[in-house]
Amino acid sequence: MCACHGDADAEAFAPTTRPMPIRFFNTRSRAVETFTPIDPPGATVSLYTCGPTVYAHAHIGNFRAYTFEDLLQRHLEWRGYVVRRVMNLTDVDDKTIRGCRAEGIPLAQFTARFKTAFFEDLEAMRIRPAEAYPAATDPENIGQMIAMIARLLESGHAYQADDRSVYFRLSAFPDYGKLAHLDLAELRPGGRVRSDEYEKESIGDFALWKAWDEEDGEVAWESPWGRGRPGWHIECSAMATRLLGDEIDIHCGGVDNIFPHHEAEIAQSECCTGKRFVRYWLHCAHLLAEGQKMSKSLGNFFTLRDLLARGFTGRELRYALLSVHYRLPLNFRIVSLEGARSALGRIDEWLARLTDHAGTAPAEPHPAAGSDAFGEALDDDLNISAALAVLFDAIRDSHRALDAQTLTAGQARSLLDWWAGIDTVLALSPEVGGIPAAVQALADERAAARAAKNWAESDRLRDAVRGMGWEIKDTRGGPAKLSPVKGAA
Ligand code: AMP
Ligand code: ZN
Description:
Elements: E1 23-26, E2 31-34, E3 44-49, H1 60-78, E4 82-87, H2 94-103, H3 107-124, H4 139-154, E5 158-160, E6 166-168, H5 184-187, E7 192-193, E8 205-211, E9 228-230, H6 232-244, E10 248-254, H7 258-273, E11 278-284, E12 287-289, E13 292-293, H8 304-309, H9 314-322, E14 330-331, H10 334-358, H11 367-370, H12 373-379, H13 384-403, H14 409-426, H15 437-451, H16 455-467, E15 470-473, E16 481-484
Parallel strand pairs: 3-4, 3-10, 7-8, 10-11, 12-14
Antiparallel strand pairs: 1-2, 5-6, 6-8, 8-9, 12-13, 15-16
Helix pairs in contact: 1-9, 1-14, 2-3, 4-6, 4-7, 6-7, 9-10, 10-13, 10-14, 12-13, 15-16
Bound molecules: adenosine monophosphate and zinc ion.
């Protein structure tokens, strides 16, 4: 898809010999804009990405957001920027409190296991680590939230209500609704909302600090307004501004974050600092299951762990999520992973063939390897479909040249070097020993059955492994080898 429509910067379309600038679709303006960071080009980009609420394992809808943000970070880095990315961990909210109370354990103990699992999943998905993963309950973050709320009270943007909670005064911020393009005159905000996730119909003054009530159990912090806990929205405003400053280049999330979460973040941050909080708002469309948003509340979700147990890899899920433009809805089906496996198989086969042909030859010029078409496609609002088309065209053409014996060893080397460059963005290089644990466990069981000469069981297990998309190849003397079934799609 071409994302150029609506670019406000006419200069970007002028015939020019210099590379096109990077362009992003900004939710705030609903237009594709030329990316100009606060720092001069070539320097630093600050990126804040809303992270998981650690009350359960993240589902793969969440990973659609994190994978798109990873592509964004990696592309900016490839283009020479130093990216300072911060991803928060929401480790106190209604859901985490409910979870720890149900288990009768302290909040920190309850959330710790989901934090650990989240970092394992990030690694399996090859998501480059952020500079910081602040947690809402870190004392310095709670301190920053309290300081921001105090400032908002002082300036009249907030007030303490009869229920002892502190609320943001919507009428004191006329820009509320501009990100989500809401017409406040039409919606006529009224009353107060204590819940973090309110609908547009119930728009009203939202909670910054929630006074303690029985449902909170042991979870509470002291504040100048009494015991209580922060609202979800102030958590992100506090962590973003504390770690990245009052003005941030890019802020991301899924489209469900636009309202009310990001709208509230803007209101709180801008009323505290008097500065524009974020220059570029980027939001990914939802990952869907059967046409509906994949979510915990609907129960229509898979976790990465579910997919690993079915024999898929993080690399395959990464490809499936990455290969569709981030602003297009993506309907998830298991066959999408089979398609991903087959596409990755083509890349692996190509790399193996090139490596074999290149030997130790020094690089020689090759048109595809010398072209910037892949990067230019991503400059265009992360147009991944066009970028992958460049890759697969190069794969097809070099196979043809190899068949016709017209590709030199040095050109094969150049293509491998080119791949090494673009793979710093894609992060799709072949797995090194990347066999899912569930597959490996069955293969180990089969090896034991085979050693015990239990042929029926050994055959049954081989079929089970095959059913998970993996082929067992016995070797003489050594352990059996596992490889993805060819053409599983
Ligand atoms: P949460 O843990 O619900 O706060 O979500 C963490 C991140 O995942 C946020 O950026 C959400 O917008 C995003 N997200 C949640 N569900 C989906 C989905 N089905 N598709 C894409 N992104 C999602
Ligand atoms: Zn957030």
